[in-house]
Design brief:
transmembrane transporter activity; D-galactonate transporter; 17 helices; Atg22-like; mainly alpha; transmembrane helix; Growth Hormone, Chain: A; MFS_dom
Amino acid sequence: MSGKACKSIWNPQVVAWVLYDFSNSAYILLVPAVAFAVYYRQVVAGGHAGADLQWSFLVSLSLAIAGFLAPFIGSLADVGGLRHRLFTLCTVICCLLTGLLWFITDGMVVVGGILFIVANVTYAIAISLYDSYLRSIVDNSRSARLSSIGWGVGYLGGILCFILCYPLLKGGLATDNLVQYRTSFTITAGFYLVFSIPAFIMLRGIVPRENSRSQFSPSIVMKAYAEVIKTVRQWRAHKEIFKFLLAFYFISDAIVTVIYFTAIFLQTNFGMPVTEILILTLIVQLIGIPCTIIAGVLGDRIGKKIVVLATLVVWVGVVLLMVFGRHPVVPYLMAGTMGLVLGSTQAVLRSMFSDMLTENHAAEFFGFNALAGKVSSVLGPLTFGLIATATGSQRLGLASLLLFFGTGAVILTTVKPSRSAKHVSKW
């Protein structure tokens, strides 16, 4: 929306952008984070001793593929004016494959794994393209606020989809409930697709180049590839951006590992049924709504880096609870503490990175952001899976996350604030 004032939160493009956060949260909650994660481990993979490693391999592989593709696809979006088409295509593919998870039953390890990998890859790429729109619809002084509102509204979407699916999930993984349980994947896919439609319509042509009739062609592909290589070779010209990405590498590694393995951890170490885990997840979401929005307001007022560093201290507390806590109340303390920072850290980091970019290269650099996040996320889940399998203790695997959070915090303190000019769009 270059050059056009965005005077109200009710501007259709802003609302459509926020609503996409509302829609995609259903996928991340009910597929990789909780419902399908537990289903794959216990039913598809049989729940044997190596099931943790199998699931961690699928998660790691999907994130690695997405990470390496994201900068190239982001560059293709920028160079060819194809961002909206690629964003829409990836979202639709993810929704379709998520719906097809209904057909995955016990023993379908390979087919179920492939469907999940491709769905997770397209989801991750769609998100990196979606995040790049933030640079175009809000100025730096309001970016943390809008990013956090989107994340908070996303929690509402996750909660609503959870409510819709709960009657199907409450029977757990009992044999006579598996058909109903799998139906939750189809509902999640439909939810994601339906509430993405406003973004498909309203975000079209938000950048002037996207109004052109650029077509996918070999020359555009080669130019996009050349731009990515040029950016890597000239990394010193973007030193602060790449320093931020290194910090994000470690922070994202730890957060994604917590997200992808909390459900399995609670089931294994506290004997929690799926329904109780979903309730705890709901608690995280409910607490996260106001906390994420407050973090965004504070980020715009007192500094985004300060807010992020404060949330990392809380993350250390979450990990320590998981490593040492054994009392039955610990899962609830953990859920409450995680709710304070799960959305806050990621939303403010998203706005902090957006502030550092120019509009013409936003999709490419958010692709590098995805690369840092996804490739780093290979190491965390894989390390967790290897340690948990080798030692028989998931707690020891989680203890490694303290190093990731600490390293990310130290590097982030060295990142200089963005000096980029505020662009003309106002929210």
